[in-house]
Automatic annotation (TrEMBL):
PROSITE patterns: ABC_TRANSPORTER_1 (PS00211), ABC_TRANSPORTER_2 (PS50893)
Name by which UniProt lists this protein: ABC transporter ATP-binding protein
PANTHER family referenced in this protein's UniProt entry, alphabetically: HEMIN IMPORT ATP-BINDING PROTEIN HMUV
Keyword Plastid: no
MF (Gene Ontology): ATP binding; ATP hydrolysis activity
Length: 262
């Protein structure tokens, strides 16, 4: 189902932190949201996830998202937050199982409430993110990267048609970064829309179909990576120069030097 944003605008306190934004994200597309610190990337993702009040309208297919019943919305949107705080000793498996909460009907004491389908989705998500071997470990005892993979597994276990991920690879080593980006991209093959907030310009350029470049709450580019990330836009938005090219046919953007501050 396509996701359509129509004049989406967010104010926090007295400030407009996201100016009216309209765009359509097709089913089966992987979109990278990029931009400097404070540009409004997480704000936009939270607005799509219905976690912030916004003006305008967001449509999933023919339905305005804010009109969907919460339990229906929870099955349609999966959101992986940027924050990485886990404050209680929960087994990794149980954290991932929370991703199946939107499907649960009843619950009785002593019953984990998981169906066979739930267990399959949990195991698949944990194996795909290379954390099945961590399933019995308390999430408090995991390293930052291990915990990030468990949290991503929770988001994948929802099996929602729209997956929103805020900096899903920030804590990961290079190999796991590549694996997780390939995994997120692979989600689109079944028709999911995947929207990822990322700072790594090479990973976004390579794995996302289109990039949305935000600067001070405004959209300043939306399209294929090498159209959006030109030497001019990198200079104007980030104040940097970068090596831009293709390797084995795929784009990369490697930040290289900072412009002199005026
Ligand atoms: N509760 C709030 N009240 C007022 N301003 C806020 C609030 N939350 C965020 N902001 C401001 O909104 C702007 C956008 O924040 P947001 O977190 O969306 O940026 P971002 O692009 O995700 O940044 P980063 O790359 O640093 O994570 C920032 O200037 C931030 O200071």
């Amino acid at each position: 189902m396509p996701l359509r944003l129509e004049g989406v605008e967010v104010s926090l306190g007295r400030r407009v932190v996201l100016h009216p934004l309209s765009c359509t994200i097709e089913a089966g597309e992987c979109i990278g949201i990029i931009g400097p610190n404070g540009a409004g990337k997480s704000t936009l993702l939270k607005a799509i996830a219905q976690l912030l009040p916004y003006r305008g309208r967001i449509w999933l297919g023919d339905e305005p998202l804010d009109r969907l019943a919460p339990e229906v919305r929870a099955r349609h949107l999966s959101y992986l937050a940027q924050a990485d705080r886990v404050s209680w000793p929960l087994a990794a498996y149980d954290l991932v199982a929370l991703g199946r909460r939107p499907y649960r009907r009843g619950w009785q004491w002593g019953d984990d409430g998981l169906s066979e389908k739930d267990r399959k989705a949990i195991e698949e998500a944990m194996r795909a993110t290379d954390c099945w071997s961590l399933r019995a470990r308390s999430v408090e005892t995991l390293s930052g990267g291990e915990r990030a993979r468990v949290r991503l597994a929770r988001a994948l276990a929802v099996e929602a048609p729209v997956l929103l991920a805020d900096e899903p690879v920030a804590a990961l080593d290079p190999r796991h970064r590549l694996e997780v980006m390939a995994l997120l991209r692979a989600q689109t093959e079944g028709g999911k829309a995947v929207i990822i907030v990322l700072h790594d310009l090479s990973l976004t350029s390579r794995f996302c179909d289109r990039l949305l470049l935000l600067d001070r709450g405004q959209s300043v580019g939306f399209g294929p990576a090498l159209e959006v990330l030109s030497p001019e836009s990198l200079g104007a938005v980030y104040g940097i120069e970068a090596l831009i090219g293709r390797y084995r046919g795929e784009p990369y953007v490697l930040p290289w030097s900072c412009h002199e501050m005026p």
